[in-house]
Amino acid sequence: MTAGGVLRTALSLLLVALVLWPHAFAPVFAPFAPERGPVIYDRVSLLSLSLSHLGLVAAASSLAALVAVTLAILVTRPAGAAFRPLSRTLTNVGQTFPPVAVLALAVPMLGFGAWPTLVALFLYGLLPIFENAMTALSTLPPRTLEAARGMGMGRFQRLWQVELPLAAPVILAGVRLSVVIGLGTATIGSTVAARTLGEVIIAGLLTNNTAFVLQGGLIVGLFAVLIYDALVRLEARIARRAGAGSARAG
Amino acid sequence: MIEIDRITKVYDDTTVVDEVSMTVETGTITVIVGTSGSGKTTLLRMINRLVEPSSGEVRINGEVTRDIPTHLLRRRIGYAIQGHGLFPHHTVARNIAAVPRLLGWPKDKIARRVDELLTLFGMEPAAFRDRYPAELSGGQQQRVGVARALASRPDLLLMDEPFGALDPIIRGRAQEDLRAIQQKLGSTIVLVTHDMEEAIRLGDRVGVMDGGRLVQHGPPEEIVARPANAFVAEMVGDAERPMRLLSLIPVRGLVEPGAAGGDPVPEGASLRDALSACLWTGRDAVPVERGGAVVGRITLDAIRGRVEHRA
């Protein structure tokens, strides 16, 4: 196994242990807990918090990917080119809003719970995916597209069989960025009563319990690092299939 | 038979192709040669309607292309371009199978056709079928590009500078291969190039384009011997003309009985090769062989006579 493989396995095991058997780590976190205060967060099982945290991010990112890629496909068609600046502005606005502001604005409309968080994560995830998808779809090798057109592929055949597969690695890089941003941002969702790992961190901040903050932060951080790594490897595999070696010429 | 009938393309105020008419006989290679901006690529792309003509029409075996939906028309016409345009994410087999798949051929028929084409292009099917384009050399990529264009046995093969990205040695070999395969399959080809040498070597007929007009169209001998105007003469290259002419004539027709010393030339070689052999070894005549046996000789005087006779 490579050094990277060893590290990956070790971090995964650490994460699983932190989520499933938090009490085993009591001696490690004890120095950070207030005197006679609780060391390990056990009001809710960390597993159920982790699952709902991941579920929220997955739902928001999938939705963002669907909308952003569709939008990118539309504005890279000749008929949609006019909408490119507008769609760029819209997704940029999504990014400039601080997530806390989105939460504050969404609560009156959607109430407390997971929904405002989902909206904030969705808006926040749009931009990186849209920008990457648009770049990927507008910088495909022109000769390959010309050949596809010249051999009689229809628009949808070109899109599905040629353009999207070739753009996939770059689009996926955008999804990865959006997922990682989402994993971190979802913690703030706990301020409006979404069930995420932010609950642990916020409980720690409210009670001045650094042990809780560390515990929650460590779990979220490990998820982010490991998911990032897995997506990078997925991208590399897809890029190989999409012929990243096509640089070789003559 | 492909008939191009007074076809014209106008962009804004610029006429890129100006009332070009020509007929391409079935089973022949027509090479359109011109400088960049001469309209040769636009002319080619109007045949499969990648560019829509402003006026005029193209008929394939009497059928007007304007009446056929573009995607169906293009599936009937092979298209090979410079830098091959292969799909980098598909294997060699899937690339070659692209048009047959669009046409809905059954799987086993496609697989047989792919293997047949790979063999025809001198690529062992078992070794190449599952490779990706990035794993091939430039010459191999180019061959797969042409094989893909031929896969569905199209009525017509259009080639846009197909050898432009290859180095001179590979290019020469690719041209010979194309000629051999075209003769074997009886394909009809329209090829665009800026290289007069390539045009003369490959074309049954050569069309010279300048400023959107077809300034001369005829067999290569005629283009070399009787250029229609100063532009064609310049394309042919005055100093090169005798050599180009000699390269078109086989030794076969000028063999005379008699003996000569030194290494023989095959009777299928061109007069240019024979002249070169004479000059290089300082002989006035070289023996000519057919299938390993000497059948006569060719003399320097006969070669000279042939050129003077033409000019």
Q: What are the low-pLDDT stretches of chain B, counting only 5+ consecutive residues below 50?
A: none
Radius of gyration of chain B: 22 Å
Give me the Rg of chain A, rounded. 22 Å
CATH superfamily of chain A: MetI-like
Distance between the termini of chain A: 37 Å
Keywords (chain B): ATP-binding, Nucleotide-binding, Transport
Family (chain B): Belongs to the ABC transporter superfamily.
GO molecular function (chain B): ATP binding; ATP hydrolysis activity
InterPro entries (chain B): AAA+_ATPase, ABC_transporter-like_ATP-bd, ABC_transporter-like_CS, P-loop_NTPase
List keywords for this structure.
heterodimer; A: mainly alpha; flat; B: 311 residues; alpha/beta; Rossmann fold; CBS domain Like; 6-stranded mixed β-sheet; globular; ABC_transp_perm/SBD (chain A)
Detailed description of the structure:
The complex is a heterodimer of chains A (250) and B (311). With 250 residues, chain A is an all-alpha fold. Chain A has a single domain, classed as Orthogonal Bundle (MetI-like fold), CATH 1.10.3720.10. Chain A is built from ten helices and no strands. In chain A, helix 6 (114-138) crosses helix 8. The longest helix of chain A has 32 residues, at 210-241. Chain B folds into two domains: 2-237, P-loop containing nucleotide triphosphate hydrolases (Rossmann fold), CATH 3.40.50.300; 249-310, CBS domain Like (Alpha-Beta Complex), CATH 3.90.1280.20. Helices cover 40% and strands 25% of the residues of chain B. The two termini of chain B are 32 Å apart. Chain B is an alpha/beta fold. Chain B: Residues 2-236 form the ABC transporter domain. Chain B: It comes from Tranquillimonas alkanivorans.
